[in-house]
Amino acid sequence: MIRLWLPLVVLLLWAAAALGAQLLPLTPNLIQLEQILATPEAGAVLGYDDLGRAIDARIIVGARTSFLVSIWVVGLSLLVGTLLGTVTAFHGGWWDRVAVLGVDIFLAFPGILLAIALAGLLGPGIGNVVIALTAVGWVGYARLARAQVLSLQHREHVQAAVALGSSKWRIIRRHLLPLMLAPLIVEATFGIAAVVIAEAGLSFLGLGVQPPTASWGAMIRDGARYMLVAPHMVLAPGMAILAVVLSVNLLGDRLRDKLDTRMTARTGTQS
Amino acid sequence: MPAYLVQRLGSALLVMFGVVSLVFLLIHLIPGDPIEVMLGESASGADREALRAALGLNQPLPVQYLDYLGGLLQLDLGTSIHFRRPVSELLLERLPATGLLAAASLLVTVLLALPLGIMAAVRRNTIWDSGAMGFSMLGVSIPNFWLGPLLILVFSLWLGWFPVSGQSGFGSVVLPALTLGTGLTAVLSRMVRSSMLEVLGEDYIRTARAKGLPPHRVVLRHGLRNALLPVITLLGLQLGALLAGAVITETVFSWPGVGLLMIEAIQSRDYPVVQACVLLISLSYVIVNLLTDIAYAWVDPRIRLGTPP
Asked: Which of A87, B22, B127, B191 has the maximum number of C-beta atoms within 10 A of its C-beta?
């Protein structure tokens, strides 16, 4: 049982921190020079960073960054990818061939390489991070949606709908999409874990959100320079990322077993 | 075989052409004037026009595209704005370091993933199994850019076994390779486990056991050999994740490879170098996948003869 509720608690905390961050009286950007690199104490349980800012407040605000980015990226990718994959696969012919080629071209850029290049060219900012990660993220859903349509379109109920003269859009919406939902949801769950790592990765490279906005990845980047004197600067944000990603992955595994979708070898986007 | 080979080669060429086109467009897709971004607002009009002419950005787009393709065919990737040297020269300098890192990470992966996966499969549903799979889950979830600093903290700063960063001597590759290999080890050990479990249920394994072969011989010779095929395919696919991960890992350890070059180029707004790095990494990924597929077809007659496996 602990394997179910512990991840759930972590994710609820993550969402609560993200959505409630603005309601709390936090001062993530308040600089206290006398506290520079101070180790954990009663007032600030996680200590202070190299500019004398409270790390616990920055972790909470960083949760907001990673939560918002992952919701936007996974939402947009799911929408664009599913729509594109479903429509082109169901239409068939040249539409399908062009779409497959497009997916293959985007898949040729390994992992978040394309996102790194895009984010680098677009410049820092949370909107650009979402654009860069969505440009990489839609492909997986498009491929999955296409595979689903190809296996579903010969089912009898779809053939019946075609014979009855239903419009293509109606068939997709009423007869295909509901059956495709389960595997897409499982994929999207793992997608959240990938985006949390990718966002932090971009921020670690200095290509993510603009300072002084807090991001877990940027906190690790700042802390790596002071590791010998203040290891707490690196440990806290890393634990936060690990906790969220591990929880999402554990729940994703449960969900996959429950929905029993057979997935082919996943080519994860480990960064 | 020839028909499959031609078809696979053709699609790979088409994809490579698409990758080249997309990388070319990358610099034109971003809003605003790339010249302005590269030089900053203080540059004089004459300097801007000079750089624009040097990069060929004053030409119409189709002409630029053809120039770019023509240059690529002669392995001319343009000139670095920052270093004022041919980009191909820079890449050649950085390539060995990335190659060494990738090879060392693959070695780490194979050395760790095979024993872990085999142990988990043979001792299925025991504490060994759940331990190995728990480690694998942790390995997938831990980001490179955190594992790297952690390893530096423990093994370089506290224990002093390895250098903190850079490329100096044999020991310096250990921590970067461990960092980069962990994610891949996690994915691969799961694959080894499930593939072994499938094979260990086969009749010929029962036969081998029944005729009294020692257990290790059954597992390694009759089991592992047959379980390796899907594992090798996955290894080819995952090499991409390895190459992309190298960008971050090289940054963590200041490892002087292509990935670090790319990040440096992004920071100094050296767009021709960024384009070339993306191109090099992606094209090598496409080629590795092509070779994996061809090797697979060579081994497995079902694919080369065109019948579904």
From this structure: B191
